[in-house]
Amino acid sequence: MRQISLTKLSLATLCAMTILAGLSVYAQEDEDKPRPQPPVPAEYQNKKMPDGGWTNAALIAIGEKVFQEGVEITTPDGKEIQKCAQCHGPQGKPKLKGARDFRDASRINKFGESFWFWRVSEGVPETKMPAWKGILSEEQIWGAMAYEHRFSHGAEPAVHQHAEIVGLGGEK
Ligand code: HEC
Q: 35-64, pLDDT tens digit by residue?
């Protein structure tokens, strides 16, 4: 009797483990799958990097601070520091699974600047990417973009001008 129930138990455990393993493989594939860029909402379509911003040392320094040191935010549990690097990694190599790899030029070269600004401002629904609107100023968001753009250009500031840009690029 005792032996049967043990066998049943281990069968049940095995089944559960198989299902869980299957699910995690599925989740992994889903996260890494390149998704088409959704259209930029009307209120963001005119957003443009300030003139010369992609390579502006002062703006990049503002962005570096946001990215690496972060800002203090108030949560229901008190105050905490949130920074881009905690998920996207200090060198643009993601620390959080599913966070975008900023070293991947094939992806970043496609980001129209209004798309990029919108995504940082409003976050990405149903993912861990937070909305930064109201936490960061527009200048800090442009700075964070100019700073993170470096990761796909060998850590050097570069003008974001690529033939691959999808949608609203806004040449600068
Ligand atoms: C708590 C984790 C977390 C933090 C902090 C975070 N991100 Fe993200 N970010 C993510 C994840 C996860 C994704 C992938 C979302 C998806 O699946 O499209 C993402 C995606 C992005 C994208 C790409 C959006 C797209 O549609 O492909 C940009 C740009 C971005 N983050 C910029 C930033 C910037 C700038 C900061 C800091 C101001 C920041 N992130 C902070 C988790 C984070």
A: 678 999 999 999 999 999 999 999 999 999
Closest-CA residue, ligand 1 atom 21, reads 100
d(CA 31, CA 105): 18
Give the ligand 1 atom nearest the CA of 115: 26
Euclidean distance between CA atoms 67 and 114, whole angstroms = 19
Which residues fall within 8 angstroms of residue 123, CB to CB, at 6 or more apart? Answer: 129, 130, 131, 132
d(CA 58, CA 42): 29
Task: Give residue-wise pLDDT tens across range 68-98.
Answer: 999 999 889 999 999 999 999 999 999 999 9
Ligand 1: lining residues by beta carbon, under 6 Å: 66, 82, 84, 86-88, 96, 98-100, 116, 119-120, 124, 127-130, 132, 144, 148
d(CA 118, CA 41): 8
Give the CA-trace dihedral at 101, 50, 125, 147, to 10 degrees.
30
Tokens of 32: 């890494």
Cα–Cα distance between 92 and 94 in angstroms, integer?
A: 6
